Amino acid sequence: MATLKTGLGNSGVPLAVCQIKIVLLGTRPPIWRRVLVPADFTLAELHNVIQTAMGWENEHLHEFRIGGLRFGVADPKDALMGGPRCINEENAQIGNVLNKRGPKPRYIYDFGDGWEHALTVEKIRIDAPEAGVTYPLCTAGKRNCPPEDCGGISGFYHKLEVLSDPNHEEHEELREWMGDFDPETFSIETVNQKLHKMFRASRRSKPVETARPKSASTAKMETLNALLEAVGPGLQLPHKQPQRIRPGERVPLELNDRERTLILEHTFADEELTNRLRVVPEPGERPVFRFTLDDLDELAGFVAAEANHANDKKLGKELDRLFARIDNVLDSYTDQD
């Protein structure tokens, strides 16, 4: 049983946390989740996070593909077949194999149906200790996960089409098999309850060392040094309190011509998001576009994915800067209680 991580590590130093977006490839509109996972988690633990966050039932084989490497469950039979099929995922920490500038990570589940997930490390952040916050944690997501064994992407959308047509000859049979499946249903609360149960905190007590008290300045400097050593580039420190807005309220995002071009020509953002960007502002008018936080969240995910996968370094840096600006706007508002 894995251990649930709190805001402070055993040494009293805040944890390095990876913010990862998981997108089920081939789905339109996309089925996705955003999770916060400690950087010292293994790929085996990340597998369980993905299964729980997406809604899979862990009934089939899986593996991670990162560059030319494959990570998965160790099989003793591999030694008899001339070597391991893949690297043992229990020996790989995500902080060492996943990053914002590495190869395109993929998580494959069920080699028959072939569910392929794109994993994007959107940022590495330092947890600001907050009462009651534990990791791993799902912070966002949209749409229901396909049912197991439904025939992959093509089978899934065929079944949705049949379910929506009461006159289809397969409708009743499929309705009996899929029950009251709703493709739009997703509950963050349910996911986090399952994550908390799966990664519940260890009850074993740990010895407490008695140390000579340090001065406030010494303690602060040692903590800062430890943080910088732990995460290096990509450090995200706590920011100011976000402005409260109403759910569904739109907030302004200023985009120049180049930034609009980056989104329109270099991302796979849905037309629902991009159509408003095609309206050219009048001369002298500020190029301000308004989005809901959900829209901005999806847009940021598309930009981050392209930044992570860009082969052109200059383009990648431009997309990185654009993502940082969108992410800063997201962090400046909240519609949550």
In short:
The chain folds into two domains: 5-143 and 186-198, Structural Genomics Hypothetical 15.5 Kd Protein In mrcA-pckA Intergenic Region, Chain A; 239-334, no CATH class. Helix content is 34%, strand content 20%.
Record the SSE blueprint.
Layout: E1 5-6, E2 16-24, E3 31-38, H1 43-54, E4 62-66, E5 69-72, E6 87-88, H2 94-97, E7 105-109, E8 115-126, E9 134-135, E10 137-142, H3 152-163, H4 171-178, H5 188-198, H6 216-231, E11 243-244, E12 251-254, H7 257-266, H8 271-274, E13 288-291, H9 293-309, H10 313-331, E14 333-334
Parallel strand pairs: 5-6, 11-14
Antiparallel strand pairs: 1-9, 2-3, 2-8, 3-10, 4-5, 4-7, 7-8, 12-13
Helix pairs in contact: 1-5, 9-10
Structure overview:
Helices cover 34% and strands 20% of the residues. With 337 residues, the protein is of the alpha+beta class. A hairpin with a 6-residue loop joins strand 2 and strand 3. Helix 1 (43-54) runs antiparallel to helix 5 and helix 9 runs antiparallel to helix 10 (313-331). It is globular and about 65 Å long. The relative contact order is 0.14.
